[in-house]
Write a structure and sequence with these properties.
3-stranded mixed sheet; 8 helices
Length: 255
């Protein structure tokens, strides 16, 4: 299996999710894997695939604060994308056992990359998978998620479909996750206590500061060169088609 890296500019939530799903389709079609790193053009609250969200958020306040909404194709809980680095990995996969192996592989790459950056992170232990719900993603680490001193630094989620896997997640630069509680109509949740790269490094790294060690770690893990992805016409057509889905209220507020 060949890996490519793909650094994309900041984009709206609908396009970011469309690109991730289109890369998943590409993985099934070509047998190639892609490690993507990207940002967001506006603060965006992403909802887990099966999370209840309809009538739960204050849309007027969100518009006032400039926060957009999108629903992810992956599971998990609400997550605010703003001051962070987001990654995705898409690859062909055969079964659930291979998906778990891929989860461990990707997290090992992330851990090694963070170590190269100067962050001493580890995998959470003694925790259970957290079911979909209104509590924010960074409220509690799930088993094997990446933490610093028990505080979640990277929130990740997976989706396996039609012979391919998508895993994507957020590496926090700063902790803005408390805004999720402000946007909820029932404002009874405490701000999640998270780890951030700015706190661990004493500075805010740039996107390129983070990308380089991650790609180096992927190269070390695979033992092969990691060329940049050159998008083809089929990938671009899939992105354009899927953007319509992720922009639509029928998907975002389906439950």
């Amino acid at each position: 299996m060949r890996w490519h890296s793909y650094l994309t500019p900041a984009a709206p939530g609908s396009r970011n999710m469309a690109v991730d799903e289109a890369l998943m389709l590409r993985a099934a079609r070509t047998g190639d894997a892609v490690f993507r790193v990207y940002g967001w053009s506006a603060p965006t609250l992403s909802l887990g695939r099966n999370q209840r969200a309809r009538e739960c958020y204050d849309h007027a306040l969100a518009r006032e604060l400039g926060v957009q909404f999108v629903r992810r194709p992956t599971g998990g809980r609400a997550l605010l994308h703003d001051r962070e680095v987001t990654y995705s990995a898409t690859l062909p996969i055969e079964n659930a056992a291979h998906a778990r192996a891929a989860y461990d592989f990707i997290n090992d790459v992330l851990l090694d990359g963070l170590s190269r950056l100067g962050v001493g992170a580890s995998k959470a232990t003694g925790t259970r998978s957290v079911p979909p719900g209104l509590r924010p993603c960074f409220d509690l680490p799930a088993e094997h998620e990446i933490v610093v001193s028990g505080r979640k630094l990277v929130g990740s989620a997976q989706w396996r479909h039609d012979g391919a896997l998508l895993q994507h997640g957020s590496i926090l630069l700063h902790n803005d996750q408390g805004l999720i509680a402000r946007l909820m109509k029932d404002q009874t949740m405490a701000e999640p206590l998270t780890a951030t790269l700015a706190d661990e490094l004493g500075r805010e790294p740039s996107l390129h500061d983070v990308v380089q060690p991650l790609v180096q770690s992927l190269r070390r893990a695979t033992g092969a060169a990691i060329p940049d992805l050159e998008p083809d016409d089929e990938l671009n057509r899939d992105v354009d088609r899927l953007c319509d889905t992720y922009r639509g209220d029928s998907w975002t507020w389906r439950r």
